[in-house]
Fold:
Amino acid sequence: MKKTLIRNGYLIDPGSRLEGFYDLLIENNKIERIEKDIKYSKNVNIIDGKNKYIVPGFIDLQVNPGNSIEYISDILPFCGITTPLVMPCNVLGKPFLTYYEGLENMLKSCEGLRVNIANAISIEPPDTGGHETYMQLAVDMDSIEERVLELIQLGVTAVGEVVLPLGGLAHISSDMSREFLDRLLDVTEKYDMPILLHTGAGINGIKEAVEVSKGRRLHICHIGSTCSQDNIHEAITLISRNENITSDTHLSEVAGSNSKESKLVIDYYNKGEVVNIDKDTLKITTVRNLETANPPYYYNKVNLFENNITCALSERINAIESDDLGDGIRARILLKNFFRLVNSTEMEHIKVKFIKKLVKKLTYNPAQILNIDRGILKEGSYADIVLLDLENEKVDTVLVNGEIVLDNGKLTDNKPGKRIEFKSK
Structure:
């Protein structure tokens, strides 16, 4: 394969702590050299990074398949996302196991796409109700370890997003959340498998999750959204006091679901606050009839956006994710708000500071949470690379495993993505 050289760009990589004008030479699927001025021959593909920021490819800790994994993988490069963690959620209105005709078929579909795919599969209590996909993922208490071992054998990256109504309303119903989570954490801790949790709404859900964790490793999702009607600073402080708990926030004005059976969707629909968003124009239309409306179903929570901004800028919240519902809308919103935060100042050194803070939460930190060898730019690392155009607020070029999948804002025919499998520490 012809070598590729990225020149003239400003590199910012929080993982390796490299910053400045560097050239990157890529051979096969990895970075061969990073130097100030790399001499090159004619037999090299040149990418001119002038006036661009070079950063690692984004790792999104929550992408729902929505319109299918194949569909969303063609949208994510435009948002700088090279490795999404795909969650078990409805696909075109069907439970994802039904749509893909089983777990193994779904995993096979994750190879050879435009982006890498990491997979999370939830394990839910036996009395789970209120969401068709999560009901399919329910197991008996005595079968938890067997199920975790099955996921490990299949190379599933993480257990999640486990949805439990701890402390408040969630997408599902269950009367045994605490007991189930306690047993599940014993098993994920034993096998060192990442686990991601969606608690019930409110600070009480986070408090209960922290109490149940008892020092075991746990990742809590959507802190800003979960605490939209409570004190977000109290939630951040609570999480930061527990070193084995990591957390994330999405960077959007809306929350949502692909299931009309979701307890949260029904609750907001009854308030007249569920909307559809056009994926091309982002135009909002209020849902008048939930039975006939097509997913995804979006809604706004009190203080949602303010909380998400607070969490995105807090040193105590580890990661930023899109929580995209498979239509690309919230991934696009994440990128839009990323650029708006960075460009909110005219002072160049403050821009760089913002980029470093936000990029770390979109690259190195998610990679550490999932224990995957991505999210960093150094010699020998996989060449998942994004060139950001701050002036025009867009992603210019994206490489996945050393191959260009987005070139000057246009998709190429390359599909070098790999499935990212579980690896114990």
Observations:
- The first strand starts at residue 3 and ends at 7.
- The longest helix spans residues 348-362.
- The mean pLDDT is 95.
